[in-house]
Every structure is written in structure tokens, then in C-alpha cells.
């Protein structure tokens, strides 16, 4: 099947083909008909599976159809709102809409914090069909009465799990209170919720937002992409930088994304790798928006070949042929592992995910294996074998309580 089979506006099909896509991905094949029908949707799809186009294409079709039947208005009405967790993702989602709508009179705006608000207000005042926003900046605009949400009839949550992780629940409630009321009996809005992972929190969250939704899961729940080869290297903390430098040289990788748990750690890792001769930059929330965008652009262009990022800063990074992802430390939340390795192996390309494991973090790896329901292969890299005589400090999180919790999971068949 190709995109013409969805009966989309021909301009949209041209935009999709211009973007290099010839056939729909599984999430697109499943979601587009549901969205076209007007039903609410809860969709589980990893990053890199084409989920942005899965909602962008049918929503553009609806907007263009409205343009065709509605009387010409002096000013466009904002009817579609897309909420995202980060500014990087906001920019990329908006760029995707513009790519697919090229040649039409579709207009959109993107708003997020960390930059001046006046240019964003000016953008909205020109008249738009669709707004891509982070929750905080949208509320700022609403307080200033700079955005009118009274005509919103489609609401999209993209990467909803990350929004919850980042503590946006209160902001989302505040946004919902400003939208037209919609009930199962008097439905005035279509709501779409996309999440890389579907867990109890997401299901609980969705119950307050969705009305009789269709459920789509294109992958095994909380699974990793089959296009990503995963490997875990046991090593000592002080050898990590040398191991990473050696591995990048050995594999000949030109683009590598490294994850750090903390902003300070990201800076330290980037600085240490630069001393080995690699061109490394760090991005995190303490860096200005301009410097983050510059570092990301240099990474995309090849001027920087190693980007070290925190989980929050990396959200929305979309490098189609990213060769490898390295977990410098094992993430505390197993869902973050799924998000991290989803940066590589996208759109059918092969990728590699490397995790550096020290003895103290074995319990974290075990939590990831429980989530994925699989064992991750552990190896020793020649020349970087761990020192088995090293004294291991017991970590607070590896307590007897934590051990009991994991044992309970296994007893319940979750391992």
C-alpha cells in the first residue's frame, strides 16, 4: 500500500514523497484511518517509527478539507493543538507539518520557553491553523490572552510518557481547563495520545483525556527496536572515557549520541572526550537555547561527531541515520533506556546501543531486562576488562527493599 490509498489531499501525498517516503510504516497504516474517522486514539509507538507523520498527515487533510468548504475568513482560526514535552521536539514536529503541507495555504506556529515571547505572539497573530507548543509556554501565552483556544477541535499529546516524567501533569490540567468542554455525550474534540511506552501511568492519564479511544500498539509493549543491536560492556568507572574513545575509533562511527544522567556529568564527559581528540559537545538545560541549537546543528553537519546529552535535552533529536547511542551510565528509569536507544535504528536503518555497566549498577540493568522481558548480552572489551578485586560500594538504591521489589516482580511472572 502507498499513501494514495488513504485518500489524502494530493498536496499531502506530494509532500510525503518529497520527504522521501514511499510506503507507510505500521503505525501510519494503523493510525491514519482511525484519525480520519474522528475517533480518539491511544497509540504506543517508539521514536523513529514514523509516528509524527501518523498524526500529521490526517490532521493536515482535515485542515485542508475545512479550507475547501469554509467561506474565506479574514483571519484563520486555530483548530488544532499539538502538545510536546520539549522545544527540540516542538520545532521538529512543526517542521514536519510544514514539509507535508508545502504548496498549500496551511499555516502553523511553534511556541516554547527559553526564548522571547513577542516573536511567538506575532506569529500567532498572523493567523494559524495549528499550534505546536510546550505546556508551560502555552499557559504563558494564555495568561497574556495572546492565544485563543476556544476553537480547538483536535488535541494531540506527543510523547505523553515523557510529559509525565517531566512533571507536566499540573500544566496539562491547566491547559485542558482552557479548552472547549468535550464529553462522550457531547463530543466537541478529537484527542490523540502518542507514547513511546504504554504503562499504568499512561493508561491512568489517558482515562481523563480520551473518550472511548481506539488502542494501537505497533510493537510489543515497551520493546526495543529490532533494528538496534544492543550490547552491554562491563567496565570500571575510571576506564569509561578511554573505552568510549577506543570504541568510536574501532567502529569508525562519525555520529554518536552519549547519554549522561546529569548536566554536570554531560559537561565532564564531553570535556574528557575532547581531550582524547574527539570533537565532542554537551547539551542540557543549563546551556542557552542558542548554544544548544548550534551544537545540534554542528552534530548534524559533522563538525561535531560526539554529542553528550541528558535525557531531557535529547528529546526530539531526530538524526535519521545516527550510528550509535552510548549509555555512559545505566538510566535510573528503565523506560528511559527504551527512549534512549530509540534515537538510533530509525526508519529502517541499523543502529547500535552500547551500555557501560559498573558492578554497582547491576540492579538497574535488571530493571531494564524486566521491562523488556529479555536478557541483554554482557561482554568484556579486550583491554578494558573490569578489575574483579575492586571494592564495591553498596548503593542506596540497591537496598533490601529494592531487592524485595524485584523479587516480587519475578514471582508475579514479570521477569
Structure explained in plain terms:
The protein is of the alpha/beta class and 415 residues long. It folds into two domains: 3-217, P-loop containing nucleotide triphosphate hydrolases (Rossmann fold, 3-Layer(aba) Sandwich); 228-411, Rossmann fold (3-Layer(aba) Sandwich). 40% of the residues lie in helices and 15% in strands. The strands form two sheets. The protein has a seven-stranded parallel sheet with strand order 3-4-2-5-6-1-7. Strand 12 (324-327), helix 14 and strand 13 form a beta-alpha-beta unit. Helix 6 crosses helix 8 (169-177) and helix 15 (362-372) packs parallel to helix 16 (400-411). The relative contact order is 0.11. The model is unreliable at 409-415 (pLDDT under 50).
Summarize, please.
The chain has 415 residues and is of the alpha/beta class.
The CATH architecture of the largest domain can be named as 3-Layer(aba) Sandwich
Strand percentage: 5-15%
Instruction: Characterize the main sheet.
Output: 7 strands, parallel
- In total, how many beta strands? 14
CATH topology of the largest domain: Rossmann fold
User: How many domain modules?
Assistant: 2
Which percent range fits the helix content?
Answer: 40-55%
Number of helices: 16
Main structural class: alpha/beta
Rg to the nearest angstrom?
A: 22 Å
Q: Gap between N and C termini, in Å?
A: 38 Å
CATH top level of the largest domain? Alpha Beta
Average pLDDT level? 86
Q: For the largest sheet, list the strands in their spatial order.
A: 3-4-2-5-6-1-7
Indicate the low-confidence ranges by residue numbers: 409-415
* Fourth CATH level, the homologous superfamily of the largest domain: P-loop containing nucleotide triphosphate hydrolases
Order of helices and strands: HHEHEHEHEHEHHEHEEHEHEHEHEHEHEH
Shape: globular
Amino acid at each position: 500500500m502507498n499513501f494514495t490509498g488513504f485518500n489524502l489531499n494530493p498536496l499531502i501525498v506530494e509532500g510525503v514523497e518529497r520527504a522521501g517516503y514511499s510506503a507507510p510504516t505500521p503505525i501510519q497504516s494503523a493510525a491514519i484511518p482511525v484519525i480520519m474517522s474522528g475517533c480518539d486514539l491511544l497509540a504506543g509507538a517508539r521514536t523513529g517509527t514514523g509516528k509524527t507523520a501518523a498524526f500529521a498527515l490526517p490532521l493536515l487533510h482535515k485542515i485542508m478539507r475545512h479550507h475547501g468548504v469554509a467561506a474565506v475568513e479574514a483571519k484563520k482560526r486555530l483548530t488544532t493543538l499539538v502538545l510536546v514535552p520539549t522545544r527540540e521536539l516542538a520545532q521538529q514536529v512543526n517542521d514536519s507539518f510544514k514539509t507535508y503541507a508545502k504548496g498549500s495555504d496551511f499555516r502553523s506556529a511553534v511556541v516554547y520557553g527559553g526564548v522571547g515571547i513577542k516573536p511567538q505572539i506575532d506569529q500567532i497573530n498572523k493567523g494559524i491553523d495549528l499550534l505546536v507548543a510546550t505546556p508551560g509556554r502555552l499557559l504563558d501565552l494564555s495568561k497574556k490572552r495572546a492565544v485563543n483556544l476556544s476553537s480547538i477541535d483536535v488535541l494531540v499529546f506527543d510523547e505523553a510518557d515523557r510529559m509525565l516524567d517531566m512533571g507536566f501533569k499540573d500544566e496539562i490540567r491547566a491547559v485542558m481547563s482552557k479548552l472547549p468542554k468535550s464529553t462522550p455525550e457531547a463530543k466537541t474534540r478529537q484527542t490523540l495520545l502518542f507514547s513511546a511506552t504504554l504503562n499504568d501511568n499512561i493508561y491512568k492519564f489517558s482515562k481523563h483525556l480520551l473518550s472511548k479511544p481506539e488502542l494501537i500498539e505497533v510493537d510489543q509493549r515497551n520493546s526495543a527496536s529490532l533494528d538496534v543491536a544492543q550490547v552491554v560492556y562491563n567496565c570500571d568507572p575510571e576506564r569509561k572515557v578511554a573505552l568510549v574513545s577506543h570504541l568510536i575509533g574501532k567502529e569508525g562511527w562519525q555520529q554518536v549520541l552519549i547519554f549522561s544522567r546529569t548536566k554536570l556529568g554531560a559537561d565532564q564527559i564531553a570535556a574528557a572526550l575532547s581531550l582524547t581528540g574527539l570533537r565532542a559537545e554537551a547539551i542540557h538545560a543549563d546551556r542557552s537555547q542558542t548554544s544548544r541549537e548550534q551544537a545540534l546543528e554542528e552534530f548534524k553537519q559533522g563538525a561535531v561527531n560526539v554529542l553528550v546529552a541528558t535525557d531531557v535535552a535529547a528529546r526530539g533529536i531526530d538524526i535519521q541515520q545516527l550510528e550509535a547511542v552510548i549509555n555512559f551510565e545505566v538510566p535510573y528509569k528503565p523506560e528511559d533506556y527504551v527512549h534512549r536507544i530509540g534515537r538510533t535504528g530509525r526508519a529502517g536503518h541499523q543502529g547500535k546501543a552500547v551500555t557501560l555497566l559498573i558492578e554497582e549498577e547491576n540492579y538497574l540493568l535488571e530493571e531494564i531486562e524486566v521491562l523488556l522481558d529479555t536478557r541483554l548480552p554482557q561482554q568484556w572489551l579486550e583491554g578494558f576488562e573490569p578489575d574483579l578485586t575492586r571494592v564495591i560500594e553498596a548503593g542506596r538504591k540497591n537496598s533490601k527493599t529494592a531487592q524485595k521489589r524485584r523479587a516480587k516482580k519475578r514471582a508475579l511472572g514479570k521477569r
